[in-house]
Amino acid sequence: MPCVYARHMHSRYVRGLTVRSLRNGDTETVSALFARLGERSRQRRFCGAKPRLSELELANLARVDRDHHVLVGYADGDAEPAGIARLVRDGSSAEIAFAVADEYQSRGYGSILASELAADARAAGITRLMATVCGDNPRIVALLERLGSIDARWRSGEREFVVGL
After folding, report:
1. How far apart are CA 130 and CA 140, in angstroms?
2. DSSP 3-state assignment of 102?
3. Which of 33, 42, 99, 127 is the least crowded, having the fewest Cβ atoms under 10 Å away?
4. What does the pLDDT look like over 4-56, one tens digit per residue?
């Protein structure tokens, strides 16, 4: 099974956003983005109240290996991360998740990160992306629809999406 993260170890620049792979164990970058998420963004990302990340959660979110791939986006002129996109591979499928700092939402950065993550997934032979969306979140639904064919179902207040690449 090919590695997901090995394809793009260099930075990419797309419409005002520099995208690079997260280094394994880089909890500082994950913490910095988490600090830039407001209460509503945290609730949407983690499907519930999330005032802080535990050490275990932080370590898991900063994990990069054969099956865990994480992209970080930096907006021009800002040293702190603007967004993170991650996938966890399971055979030819992968679970995906995104977070964009509140001040950078609605600027297309989530779409750029999603597009780059999907390209990396395709290059690694992944054919389906899965995402859990908490409640009603039209922005993330629109982002997922741009990635490929989509199938969705409700499950206990959450929607589960499968995106065919």
Report:
1. 13
2. helix
3. 127
4. 554 444 688 888 999 999 999 999 999 999 999 999 999 999 988 999 999 99
- CA distances in angstroms from 79 to 29, 33, 73, 115, 160, listed in the order given: 10, 11, 10, 22, 34
For the beta carbon of residue 141, count every other beta carbon within 10 angstroms.
15
CB atoms within 10 A of CB 42: 19
User: Could you tell me the pTM of the whole model?
Assistant: 0.90
Q: Which residue type sits at 77?
A: G
Q: Which residues contact 117 (CB under 8 A, 6 or more apart)?
A: 69, 71, 85, 86, 87, 96
Rounded to 5 degrees, φ, ψ at 115 are -65, -45
Strand partners, 71: 21, 85
Q: What is the pLDDT of residues 118-136, one digit of tens each?
A: 999 999 999 999 999 987 7
